[in-house]
C-alpha cells in the first residue's frame, strides 16, 4: 500500500490519541492536524482552523496537502456536514455525513432509529412543553433522566431525584430555539462504552471501555465530558461485544443504510448492563473522549490502514483486530472550576517528567502556547494522562504517579478512576 497522508480535524486529547496511533502506523508517512494543539504539534503539522465547523477551510487544507484520508474527530463539525463537503471534494473521509450524524445530533432521531432496528433501549418520551416533561417524569418515575435533544458536549443530561431540578433543566433546554427534551427511564447497572467501526455495511467492534462522567469521586457532582476511563473490562460478560454487534450495531447500521443515509465512521454505543440485559443509553457519531485514549493505547492493528478501509467500504477485509494484553487507564486533569466556567491561561508544568514513569504519556486537550511560548491551559479538560500495565492496578498506579507530576494551579482530577474494577468490585445484574 502506498504511503498515506492523513488529515485529522480536531484539537482535543481524542485527536492527540488518534494522531499518536497514526504516526505509529508504518503505512502513514505524514499527519496533518487542523487546528491540532501544542501536544499534537510535536507529532504532526498543525494548520489553523479558527472555527471547528469551517468546512471550506478544512477542504482547502486537504487539497493543499493532497491527503489520502480525512478523519473528522469532534461531533460538532460532523453534525454540521463537514464530512459531506470533504467527500464532495473527492476525499476519502472517516466520519458520517450530516444525515447519519443525526444519530448523535438528535436524541429523538436516535430513539426512532433504535425502535425501527429493534435495538434494546430504555423507555423515552419526546417533550416540547414543560407540562409534557412533568407528565413524563411522573410516568417514568425516579431517578429522573432528562436529556437535551441536541448536542451538549456530554453535559446535556441531568439524572436526579429532585423533581424541581429536573424541571429547571428541562425548561433551560426548551428555552433554546427549537428546544426539545427527551425524558427517559433510569437504567441501572454498570455503564459500558463500545466503539464500532462501520463502512456503511460491515461493522467491526473495538475493545469496550468504561468512562467516568461525573466530576467528583464516587460519581459526585455534575456531569462532564468525561474525567477518565479504562479498558478492557474484565468484569464484562463473556460474549458481550459479539452480542452488541448482533443486537445493536449491525441492525443500526443496516437501518441507516435502508434509509439512504449509510453510516461511515465510528458508532459509539453507550449502554447500561441492566438486570434485564444490555440497554442502549445513547449513540454518538464519533470516538468518545476519554475512552479513545485507553482503547487506542491497546490497539495493535495499524490505525491509518484500518480507518482508510472503513472510509472506502473495505472493512470486510478484516476478520478481527489485534490487541495488547495490557490494561490501560487515563485520568483527566481539569482546570479550576470545570465543568463550570473553567479558568484558563495557567502555566502547565511537569509534563516532561511524566516520561520517567513507565508506559505513561500525556495527551493534550485544553492547552495552548501564550505570546511568550509558554504552555498554558486553554480549556476545561486540560490533559489526559495515560498509562498501561500488566493489570488494572499497575496501570492505575502508573497513571496516578504521572498525574502527580503535572503542575497546574487550581487543577483537579478524580482519584478513583478504575478503582472499583481493579478491586473486582464491579458486578453485572
TrEMBL record:
Enzyme class: ligase
Any matching Pfam family: GARS_N
GO annotation, biological process: 'de novo' IMP biosynthetic process; purine nucleobase biosynthetic process
Entries under SUPFAM superfamilies matching the protein: Glutathione synthetase ATP-binding domain-like (SSF56059), PreATP-grasp domain (SSF52440), Rudiment single hybrid motif (SSF51246)
Keywords tagged on the record: ATP-binding, Ligase, Nucleotide-binding, Purine biosynthesis
Entry keyword ATP-binding: yes
Entry annotated with the keyword Nucleotide-binding: yes
Cited InterPro entries: ATP-grasp, ATP_grasp_subdomain_1, PreATP-grasp_dom_sf, PRibGlycinamid_synth_ATP-grasp, PRibGlycinamide_synth, PRibGlycinamide_synth_C-dom, PRibGlycinamide_synth_C_sf, PRibGlycinamide_synth_CS
Cofactor: Mg(2+); Mn(2+)
Gene3D superfamilies, sorted: 3.40.50.20, ATP-grasp fold, A domain, ATP-grasp fold, B domain, Phosphoribosylglycinamide synthetase, C-terminal domain
EC numbers on record: 6.3.4.13
Reactions accelerated catalytically: 5-phospho-beta-D-ribosylamine + glycine + ATP = N(1)-(5-phospho-beta-D-ribosyl)glycinamide + ADP + phosphate + H(+)
Pathway where it operates: Purine metabolism; IMP biosynthesis via de novo pathway; N(1)-(5-phospho-D-ribosyl)glycinamide from 5-phospho-alpha-D-ribose 1-diphosphate: step 2/2
Transmembrane portions of the chain: none
Domain ATP-grasp positions: 111-312
Gene Ontology molecular function, alphabetical: ATP binding; metal ion binding; phosphoribosylamine-glycine ligase activity
Matches recorded under HAMAP family: GARS
Stored NCBIfam families: purD (TIGR00877)
Family label: Belongs to the GARS family.
Protein name: Phosphoribosylamine--glycine ligase
Amino acid at each position: 500500500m502506498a504511503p498515506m497522508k492523513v488529515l485529522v480535524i480536531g484539537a482535543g486529547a481524542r485527536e492527540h490519541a488518534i494522531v499518536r496511533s497514526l504516526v505509529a502506523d508504518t503505512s502513514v508517512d505524514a499527519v496533518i492536524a487542523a487546528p491540532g494543539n501544542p501536544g499534537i504539534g510535536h507529532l504532526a503539522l498543525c494548520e489553523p482552523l479558527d472555527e471547528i465547523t469551517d468546512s471550506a477551510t478544512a477542504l482547502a487544507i486537504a487539497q493543499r496537502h493532497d491527503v489520502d484520508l480525512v478523519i473528522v474527530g469532534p461531533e460538532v463539525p460532523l453534525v454540521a456536514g463537514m464530512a459531506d463537503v470533504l467527500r464532495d471534494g473527492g476525499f476519502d473521509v472517516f466520519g458520517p455525513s450530516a444525515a447519519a450524524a443525526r444519530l448523535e445530533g438528535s436524541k429523538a432521531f436516535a430513539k426512532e432509529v433504535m425502535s425501527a432496528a429493534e435495538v434494546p433501549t430504555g423507555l423515552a418520551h419526546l417533550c416540547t412543553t414543560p407540562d409534557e416533561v412533568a407528565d413524563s417524569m411522573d410516568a417514568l418515575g425516579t431517578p429522573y433522566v432528562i436529556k437535551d435533544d441536541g448536542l451538549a458536549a456530554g453535559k446535556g443530561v441531568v439524572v436526579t431525584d429532585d423533581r424541581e431540578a429536573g424541571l429547571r433543566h428541562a425548561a433551560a433546554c426548551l428555552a433554546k430555539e427549537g428546544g426539545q427534551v427527551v425524558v427517559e427511564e433510569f437504567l441501572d447497572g454498570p455503564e459500558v462504552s463500545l466503539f464500532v467501526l462501520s463502512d456503511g455495511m460491515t461493522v467491526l467492534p473495538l475493545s469496550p471501555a468504561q468512562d467516568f462522567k461525573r466530576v467528583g469521586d464516587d460519581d459526585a457532582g455534575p456531569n462532564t465530558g468525561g474525567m477518565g476511563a479504562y479498558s478492557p473490562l474484565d468484569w464484562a460478560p463473556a460474549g458481550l461485544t459479539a452480542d452488541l454487534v448482533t443486537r445493536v450495531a449491525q441492525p443500526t447500521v443496516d437501518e441507516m443504510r435502508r434509509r439512504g443515509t449509510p453510516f461511515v465512521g465510528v458508532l459509539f454505543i453507550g449502554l447500561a448492563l441492566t438486570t434485564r440485559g444490555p440497554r442502549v443509553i445513547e449513540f454518538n457519531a464519533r470516538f468518545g473522549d476519554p475512552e479513545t485514549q485507553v482503547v487506542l493505547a491497546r490497539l495493535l492493528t495499524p490505525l491509518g490502514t484500518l480507518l482508510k478501509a472503513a472510509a472506502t467500504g473495505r472493512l470486510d477485509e478484516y476478520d478481527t483486530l489485534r490487541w495488547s494484553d495490557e490494561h490501560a487507564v487515563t485520568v483527566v486533569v481539569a482546570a479550576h472550576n470545570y465543568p463550570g466556567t473553567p479558568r484558563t491561561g495557567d502555566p502547565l508544568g511537569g509534563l516532561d517528567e511524566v516520561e520517567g514513569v513507565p508506559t505513561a504519556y500525556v495527551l493534550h486537550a485544553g492547552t495552548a502556547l501564550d505570546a511568550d511560548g509558554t504552555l498554558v491551559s486553554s480549556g476545561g479538560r486540560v490533559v489526559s494522562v495515560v498509562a498501561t500495565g500488566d493489570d488494572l492496578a499497575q496501570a492505575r498506579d502508573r497513571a496516578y504517579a504521572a498525574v502527580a507530576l503535572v503542575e497546574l494551579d487550581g487543577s483537579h482530577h478524580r482519584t478513583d478512576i478504575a478503582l472499583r474494577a481493579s478491586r473486582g468490585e464491579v458486578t453485572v445484574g
